[in-house]
Design goal:
The complex is a heterodimer. By secondary structure, chain A is mostly helical. Chain A has one domain. Chain A is built from nine helices and four strands; from the N terminus they run ααββααααββααα. In chain A, helix 3 packs across helix 6 and helix 6 runs antiparallel to helix 7. Chain A is globular, with a radius of gyration of 20 Å. Chain A starts with a helix and ends in a 5-residue tail after the last helix. Chain B is an alpha/beta fold. In chain B, strands 6-7-8-3-9-10 form a six-stranded mixed β-sheet, sandwiched between helices. The longest helix of chain B has 16 residues. The chains are: A mainly alpha, B alpha/beta. Chains A and B meet through helix 1 and helix 5 of A and helix 2 of B.
Chain lengths: 280, 241
Amino acid sequence: MIAVEFAKQWRRPRTLLTFAALAVFTIALTISLDASGAGRIERVGDIPLLVVPDRSGFSVPVIALSSTMKFFLPLAVSIFAGESVAGEAGWGSLRYALAGPVSRTRYLFSKLVVALGFSVAAVVFVPVTALAVGTIAFGWHPFTAIDGSSSSALHTAVVTFGAGAALGRLAVGTAYVMGGMTSIFAFALLLSTLTTRPFAAVAGGVGLTIVSRVLNGDYLPGVSVLNPYMPNNDVDLWQHFFQQPAQTAGMVHFLLLQIVYVAVFLTIAWWWFMRKDILT
Amino acid sequence: MAASAPPVLIEGLVKRLGQGVTAVDGLDLVVEQGQVLGLAGPNGAGKSVTLKVMMGLVRPTAGRVELFGEPVHPGAKVLARVGALVDGPGFVPHLSGLQNLELAERMIHRRNGRSDLEGAIAIAGLGGAIERQYKTYSHGMRYRLGLAQAMLGAPDLLLLDEPTTGLDPAHILEVREAIGAAARAGTTIMLSSHEMAEVQEICTHAAVMEGGRLIANGPVEELIANAGAQSLAEAYLSFVR
């Protein structure tokens, strides 16, 4: 059943368009970094991590991941999860998919596996493309970052990673970002079982990302007590992998939080989908 | 499963949809092996919801629905013996008609192992267009592909909702011929229609629903005779008024 669901999805114009947009973004990013002049320093993300783009190809995936994780990647993940069940309802094919001796649990699980596969592919696609393009543009060199949070006027904390170490940290950082997308994924999948309009489910996933970002102490100091419980904010913390030593305490908390959100959203999605009357 | 169990047994079926809407309100209906039953009635009479309960898509609020002696629920094994085209066709728009049928066959084949892709392609009658993307199809082509999918698994019970709506006259004849062939092969068929002339022509039995209940039911000839009418259309008007 997973193979059937995969066959329905992978040739979708929307799937191809999502990956094409991510590729265009990383290539455009590399060109703009290349054009921004030798030695210019880029600030990466909320954690003041500073990199000099033209010294190593590794700077491109670090900047690309940092700039896509707040909107592009949540959007891509919301598209794959939000379209999964609601897309079939919109096509009118859900009733035929479920009219046989088909376990709804298995059907939902197949949808989840395929949508998750595309979501992981999208998250991995960004640093892989960026590293390939970055290496062509700037070469395969050790990666040097300036840890702005440890630096002062008198002292610049510079961290250098060999190419192998940088690759390893990029891989772990990417896995962390994917882990940080799972609450958005599960929420969009839940909405996908509730609505027959795929657009509403996709918008809901993006909406949760935005709500999570807006209900943030940085913007609204009064709600800072909520910060540790927001589903998407601390995805930024992956940049700590490029500090020395890597500070992982917040990351563990955030990944545990993802597990809680995913468990709640998926349980509701399954509970509802088992009881749902398929009227469209 | 009792050997003599009728293909369709519905007792006291009630379905409330919320907001005070009762789509089906105490329906009793038995369809015997080999019957071609025309389900008639105005829009909103509960025909389509009844068919969806029989497909395992909608849970009844109350009542009993059995197909071939087995209770129906979402995912019930007996649904492998049912083919359906309800509320119009629904396919993956960016795949071709053939790719859609192949995906459907992969699902059906695992269920009953007697699907007939070649036969279904013939029923669809799309010629070379079967290789084109579904979203390029006309209304009539989509309908025929839906009918082909319904018949793909060589079902023992065929549920068809308005099977000839929107088709041009030549294709109406083809679809009626396909339905007739399935009936001659022993398939029990339940089809809803607004076309009383069509029901009279292709159905052995007719049932008329109104307000979620059955208001008339029996062999077509008998219904016409009992109403003192010349045709089923005339008899229908006397039932529904």
